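QUALITY CONTROL LOG
STEP: pairwise intake check
CHECKER ROLE: data steward
CRITERIA: each record must contain a sequence immediately followed by its structure tokens, with no blank fields

ENTRY 1 OF 2
RESULT FIELD BELOW
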Amino acid sequence: MAVGEGVSEFAIGDKVSVIPSFMFTEYGTYGEVVNLPAHAVVKHPDNLTLEQAAASWMMFVTAYGGLVEFGNIQAGDFVVLGAATSSVGLAAIQIAKQQGATVIALSRTHAKDDVLRQKGADFVIATNEDDVTAKLLEITDGKGVNLVFDPVGGKEAAKIINAMAHNGRYIIYGALSHDDIAVPVFPILGKHLTVRGYELFEITTVPEKLAKAKKFVFDGLASGQLQPEIDKVFAFDEMIEAHHYLESNQQIGKILVKV
């Protein structure tokens, strides 16, 4: 390890992790030796293994930004999490529960219900099998959901928006459906809803927001309230197999490659 000129917050021998705060064309991390800017490096708590540390920062910082920084999550909120078995979805479950919210996890089918409940979800809705709007209203006793953190979007978004509470916030951070998001006008007007796009770079490229995110995640990891989810670890020479496994969509949590 080497430390560049002018960098004072790190020293040779420090155990550090990387936060995705740069374009993938700027710096490469698929290697035994990598060069990274100081702002993208963070020390991690001593209670984490290197594997756990590698599985932490992208997912927890992303979820922190959507739920806390921009979603203004409050204790008692009903929170809907799309694609809940993804690494960010699992991180969002932990942060939402930590903040005192009730978590409603979305998955395409009920096949992963037990896993999601084990990970902390209070309710699970299968978007391909259930009447999403009716289920959300049933769970919330007709009051509607306060916060949505969703990487899917598409036409199905209307089913969620139609079951939102007054002053609800819909944060979309992906486009897994590839269709334009369907936004019904009358719920937005009548309930004063906010529909907002969100990117991780909104946190990681703003020094003040990144500092707050680092502290939030570091404290959560150190206390054990936040725990990284690792599905499978591959050796470095198994990089092709790791990508095939990623494409199979079987994982629950992060896939790691170990040098």
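ENTRY 2 OF 2
RESULT FIELD BELOW
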Amino acid sequence: MKPGRRTAVAAAFIGALGLGVLHAPAAQAADTGITVSEIVINNGKPIVVGTSKAVEPPLTFKITLPSGYSTADPYAYDADPFLYRGSLKTAADTGKNYIGPGGYTCYEISSKRARCEGNLYIDPHRSRKQVSSNSDATTWKVAVSLRLFKASGAVKAAEYETRSQTVRLKRAAKATAADATPDPVAKGKKITVKGKLTRANWSTKKYNGYGGRAVSLQFRAKGTNSYKTVKTATTSSTGGLKATVTASADGFYRWKYNGNTTTGSTVGAADYVDVR
């Protein structure tokens, strides 16, 4: 299997700029004959996005071309999987509620078939249209933009294909480092562990306290490799965490939140306690 020459130059431009305009309405009804199969996005896992850093979830799929077209001619066709929510036409025409490829490369399986791998591109920056509202933390649908080109570069045929496949986007969460006191502490005495849970607000591009959430306080004894939950605490209205446990051995305390349908999981840094 040798690398094909095709890279998604147009898709990379769209993804990097957050435009998402697919430019195919004139030929929308024409069947391209391109088959796109085995689409896998982010290894089948939810995509978690914060407030500032672009996220590039992995993307793989396969293409089969119609008669008269070859994978050796990378500029004769486009096949771009993308995510959308709401109206497909609105997402495709305006770029709002649209998440497209950041770029990908296709590798020839045969003259008609190729395996493609690359990534989607999600930029939470306030100038982008991709995740501009907290309502974007939901289930997104999958579709494909397909185009065939003439030798002149003009579009010969173009269409969108929707899929039953879906992908969930989640807001990133952060747990602060655990703060255990007193330290050192006498064995059998009480330790109070504090912390805070926040999550990304895509509207303000800040992290806000996440109240009313059950968060696990975990402990790992010195010389061992695994953490165990020793108590569960519920965050205050501002995301504050506090739990009291009995000191039994030297070790590390940390906060872990398992996430939910709109919010990703997170683990805070551990705090070591010396028990004497």
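INTAKE CHECK: passed for both entries
DESCRIPTIVE NOTE, ENTRY 2: DSSP finds two helices and 20 strands in the chain.
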